[in-house]
Amino acid sequence: FAADAKYSGAEVIRGILRLLPKDHIRWCSLEGNGSIVDLSLPQNKSFPPKLLHWRIRGTSFEYFAVNKIQACGLARRIWDWIAPFKPHVIWVLPEYRAVNVAKHLQAISGLPMHATIHDAYDYELARYSGVPRLCVNTYLRDVYRLLQFVTSIDAVSSELIEHICLKYGLSPAVETLVF
Q1: Model confidence at 3, in pLDDT bands (50, 70, 90)?
Q2: Per-residue pLDDT tens over the stretch 98-125
Q3: How far apart are CA 129 and CA 9, in angstroms?
Q4: Contact 90, 111 (CB under 8 A)
Q5: How far apart are CA 99 and CA 143, in angstroms?
Q6: Cβ atoms 1, 27 nearer than 8 A
Q7: Which of 7, 48, 1 is nearest to 27 (CA)?
């Protein structure tokens, strides 16, 4: 989520971040203006994908262009911004466009990755994710590949964690937390 997002999930993330030492965190997103005037939040920045022609927005072509072609470049831009900070872990909310960017960011950095999961991906897709129907299987495969690299996850319920661990074959060594 962008720091200025209006969603309840973004407010949850802001609430968590307000409890952590802000000088130990950098927050980036792929949407929004990425800046919010709230001194209790850590430094944040937005890295939006390049906009494509309006006629292909929301189509399978846009999905592949952003999630397959632009993802590596976005991850490099994010890493260039956070590398001087010398992070110890990547904390990702792996939804929609962030899935492939996070996968590339982890590969570039070699850092352990923690994932915060708000929804079951199979349910999310059926409701509101914005993933074009033709790309659903590709998206779920990308989520599966990303989750193989996480060292820890947290979610809103133990049932969701159990579902994610079973459906995506997470290692028993992956630490879990319910928030």
Answers
A1: low
A2: 999 999 999 999 999 999 988 888 776 6
A3: 14
A4: yes
A5: 6
A6: no
A7: 1
